[in-house]
Design a protein that fits this description.
Blueprint (H helix, E strand, L loop, with lengths): L3 E6 L7 H16 L2 E5 L3 H6 L2 E4 L26 E5 L2 E5 L2 H10 L4 E6 L1 H12 L4 E5 L15 H22 L2 E6 L6 H10 L3 E3 L7 H13 L5 E6 L11 E4 L7 E3 L2 H13 L3 E5 L11 H20 L4 E6 L2 E6 H4 L11 H8 L8
Bound molecules: 6-O-phosphono-beta-D-fructofuranose.
């Protein structure tokens, strides 16, 4: 074997992870005669040396499978790894242990498939001298330096399908139907699914909403003879001068805040202040599960191949990305640290406003 590559899938899972793993393993073995091993459950496997050799047969039949055959975790930061000792949980820097494990396996390069958290640690390992390549993953589409992350398109398709279904029942019962979607502090899923599904109101974190403005737009529609409305709310949406709704604090997670519940608040406010019957659906983890769509399968495959090509070229410390229609790469450090948010004066919001979609800001 020429080289040995290690790979992990870290953070919240999303459709397309298996397609990336398949492309990494096939390219490594077929094109370069490299060996590949996978570490289980994201950084946890690297710290605990929990691994599995990956061969062509390990990745056979997984292109269309949701989730990740390696497992994942959005709780483990190797630089602040939580360890329980005598019932007390303490944080320890386990990065040296990870480097030791990589040496034991004689791993020449690591491919980290993940979002902001996973890739921030990947950058830190790169700074420690580990040869690192990043692959941008997340349904939230909030990573900088790439047109899109894989997983986002499938999540948008799932949310769009939900809006289509809500449309017909909204129309039958003359109701407001509200859909809460994921996305953390970014409104990409809500914006794209809302546009694709023909929403009347879209509330996103980047544009704080005024509930009176939302209600005026719903009443305007009613006065025009439209007997139903569709409202899409991103989980990170917040009212002007107000804050996000937190559904849960996951104490042992590096990013402990889990958002959720703003949809219930908006639905209750609409019904109370307008008298229009309103129902709420929270789409939740359905957006993360299931088969990747064709776009995500293709993008994941392109990312996986490009990651191994970078290893072969010795271009480390980089994240593969989509630039325009082309696959390219950037220093990992450029992609992490801040989130890619919806530009509230950008083209997408302007397009939506042109066709009458309301954001609760006017
Ligand atoms: O980052 C992906 C994501 O699905 C977010 O959209 C959501 O806020 C979060 O993860 C949910 O995390 P968990 O799976 O820990 O509930």
């Amino acid at each position: 074997m020429e080289m040995k590559i290690g790979v992990i899938t870290g953070g919240g899972d999303c459709p397309g992870l298996n397609a990336v793993l398949r492309a990494v393993v096939k390219t490594a073995i077929r094109k370069y005669n490299f060996d590949v091993i996978g570490f289980r459950d994201g950084y946890r496997g690297l710290v605990k040396n929990d691994y599995v050799p990956l061969t062509e047969s390990s990745v056979s039949g997984i292109l269309d499978r949701g989730g990740t055959i390696l497992g994942s975790s959005n709780k483990d930061n190797p630089f602040k790894f939580k360890i329980e000792k005598n019932g007390v949980v303490e944080e320890r820097d386990m990065s040296e242990r990870v480097v030791e494990n990589l040496c034991v396996h004689e791993i020449d390069a690591m491919v980290f498939i993940g979002g902001d958290g996973t890739l921030t640690s990947a950058r830190d390992f790169s700074n420690m001298g580990v040869k690192v390549i990043g692959v941008p993953k997340t349904i939230d589409n909030d990573l900088n330096c790439t047109e899109t992350t894989f997983g986002f398109s499938t999540a948008v398709e799932t949310a769009t399908d939900a809006i289509d279904k809500l449309h017909s029942t909204a129309e039958s019962h003359h109701r407001v139907m509200l859909l809460e979607v994921m996305g953390r502090n970014a409104g990409w899923i809500a914006l794209h699914a809302g546009l694709a599904g023909g929403a009347d109101v879209i509330l996103i974190p980047e544009i704080p909403y005024d509930i009176d403005s939302v209600i005026s737009s719903l009443k305007r529609r009613k006065n025009l003879g439209k007997n139903f409305s569709i409202v899409v709310v991103a989980e990170g949406a917040k009212p002007v001068g107000g804050d996000v709704v937190v559904s849960k604090i996951v104490a042992d997670s590096p990013d402990p805040v889990r958002l959720g519940g703003v949809g219930n608040k908006v639905a209750a406010d609409i019904e109370r202040l307008s008298g229009i019957e309103t129902r709420i659906t929270v789409l939740g983890h359905l957006q993360r599960g299931g088969r990747p769509n064709a776009f995500d399968r293709v993008l994941s495959t392109r990312f996986g191949v490009a990651a191994v090509d970078l290893v072969n070229e010795g271009k480390f410390g980089r994240m593969v990305c989509l630039k325009g229609a082309e696959i390219s790469s950037v220093p990992i450090g450029d992609a992490v640290g801040s989130l890619k948010l919806v530009n509230y004066c950008g083209e997408m919001v302007s397009i939506a406003k042109s066709i009458g979609i309301q954001f609760g800001d006017e």
